[in-house]
């Protein structure tokens, strides 16, 4: 696996899975008789490793997944070896999770004490379920409506459906020209007779827009007994690492609940997200569940009754793996400052690319202003095309854009992670770039990094920017 990490750039970003490999997975015979670990490991090498999503590759520009890091991979190995069960008690994983959560409380401007709670989860989808469940507990026996912008991530609707919140209580609010929730429309939509769960997003999946979080906090503060402010910071909240980017999130620290991912921009390996809840007592009372004699705790030893934190009282799971180590090792190794620096660089790269696109107004346009690392590009020539032609055009473009090894554009372009946003007329494409190649945009981008290219034409990665790669 060390070779795998070392050679990451020598491999294609993504390669199609041959029919025989798919066939091998379709084989349903039970492995009744065991085989040697080497044989099993060799199968991993031939069946699994070559056909990953590719998001660990520096040239993977599609969608929004994070790349992980080598220190995170090491943490996963240690975690698996320890195989600890992180439900609670006197054990290192609990103390470590508490420490990591206290770092995030500080980073996000939440109270760094026991009045405020949190838990590491698999991602923002689960974090959203937790936040919604806690808010519903607070508004117990009262009608609660959920208000969210049309650009809000679909995990909110899924959470609402799971919690049996009826459709007529889900109120989608339009967005303004910056793709932020329209505050005036929101104010007009709020039902004065009901409680409300107001959702703001710090970096939407579609355009990277950050809602006016200060405006949302003011609105919720004006009726704090009836309105709960939840912020979905899956994508963007960790940019608070950067003192330059942090002001974009002013107001985030006033939320009642904040969900965010560590497996995206923070480079922690999948899966890892976090939920912070301002009212820790309410959080615990929503999930604590001591039914069953096997859960009765003895005071002393591993399982004290008082004074310690049992994470199973704050989320959906009793048996939980140790997520804190990969977060802890990532933060200790790279530090918030350097991680913030990488994010700043990603943003600069996106801005630079958007500027290059502006130089080709007849062929390309950005649908949304670049915000963070995401923006949508539109191939103007196809504006009038029918849906079918449209789809065909983009397939052609995608094919043009990927060389026969699956590599994107230009080898000299460094890690422009999370750079392109897909989503053109709601079609999903593997890679969502448009004709930039023919327009020599890559060459221009490459030019910017020429100084970092060695005599063999290989890009020299600056280790200050790309830790562990
Ligand atoms: C803004 C936003 N919210 C929520 C989610 C869901 O997060 P997860 O996939 O970590 O559950 C995503 C995922 O891309 C997202 O972009």
From TrEMBL:
Q: What is this protein called?
A: Uncharacterized protein
Spans through the membrane:
none
An example Gene Ontology molecular-function term: carboxy-lyase activity
| Protein origin, superkingdom | Eukaryota
Q: Where is this region: Disordered?
A: 448-469
Organism lineage reads as:
Eukaryota, Metazoa, Spiralia, Gnathifera, Rotifera
PROSITE patterns of this UniProt entry? DDC_GAD_HDC_YDC
Identify the keywords attached in UniProt to this record, alphabetized.
Answer: Decarboxylase, Lyase, Pyridoxal phosphate
Using the record's annotations, give every residue carrying the modification N6-(pyridoxal phosphate)lysine: 264
For activity, the cofactor(s) needed are: pyridoxal 5'-phosphate
Q: Please, one GO biological process term?
A: amino acid metabolic process
Question: Family per UniProt?
Answer: Belongs to the group II decarboxylase family.
- What InterPro entries does its record include? Aromatic_deC, PyrdxlP-dep_de-COase, PyrdxlP-dep_Trfase, PyrdxlP-dep_Trfase_major, Pyridoxal-P_BS
Q: Which organism is it from?
A: Adineta steineri
Sorted alphabetically, which Pfam families does this protein's record hold? Pyridoxal_deC
